[in-house]
Amino acid sequence: MPPDSAPEGDLRGPAERAAAAIYEECSRLIEVAGAGCVAVKPQLACFERLGQHGWWALDEVCRAARRAGLLVVADGKRGDVPVTARAYGQALVGRTETPWGQVEGLAADAFTANPLLGEDAIEVLVEAAAEASAGLFLLVRTSNPGAARLQDKRLGDRPLHEELAALVAESAPRLAGSSGLSGVGAVVGATAPQHMGRLRELMPDSIFLIPGVGAQGGKPEDLGPAIADDRPASILVAASRGIAGADDPAAAAEELRAAVWDLRG
Asked: What does the CA dihedral 52, 42, 211, 160 come to, rounded to 10 degrees?
């Protein structure tokens, strides 16, 4: 049910009721559409705005995803100086040592991060992912319309998004897997497909997390250049509203899965 509805006579406060409604809706979507997906990507802000009850809902949604056999990508786009970046890593994929014992974090399988603070902050996040056997996706070329002004701005002989791609490529060997793909991935929006081929050249071993398909105007058929040679697992396409807002979320998920799978040929 939507966050603004609750059973008559419910004595819980608004934050509790909203958090419960969000959890119920997310778990329903996981149940009906999960078979056509490989991961869920909870947007942390949508939970955090409800305070402690939102964090409860987030934790429960992640548990529901894991029960369904799905990976969890915590989408918070965190980024800060190294000492704070370390805390973000502990919160999302790791744990924190205290005088009273370990405190477990969210235990996500991967998280999104902002690389604009540079190599020292990125290294801390990569280290956190390595310690947790997790992954991270660094923002390279995002899907929002305003991205072009800064991310396509030229720095010398190449645009900023290519400089960010170089940072990803430099970090990729640290989390290299047996398949050849790295746990250091890149967020590359589907709304600017003209950059896909070049970014794949610059980041040959990174998984691309691709938002922007569906509601934002991105099209699955434009994503072929993002796929690394003979490695279809090199892209992870995110379509939140296109699935969650569909009359039949299961059919929408399966349709997108089939369209992306067809890109192999």
From this structure: 50
From CA 88, how far away is CA 105, in angstroms rounded? 9
pLDDT tens for each residue of 141-174 = 999 999 999 999 999 999 999 999 999 999 999 9
- In this prediction the pTM is 0.92
Exactly one of 41, 77, 153, 219 is catalytic; name it: 77
Active site residue 153: no
* Torsion from C-alpha of 53, 54, 55, 60, nearest 10 degrees: 90
User: Residues 116-147: pLDDT tens digits?
Assistant: 999 999 999 999 999 999 999 999 999 999 99
Contacts with 209 (C-beta within 8 Å, 6 or more apart), sequence order: 41, 73, 112, 137, 185, 186, 187, 188, 236, 238
- Enter the tokens of residue 233: 């697992």
Tokens 């603004």, residue? Answer: 4
Provide the 10 A C-beta neighbour count for residue 259.
15
Residues of the chain with pLDDT under 70: 1-11, 265
Is-contact 42 26, C-beta < 8 A? yes
What contacts 36, CB < 8 A, 6 or more positions away?
250, 253, 254, 256, 257
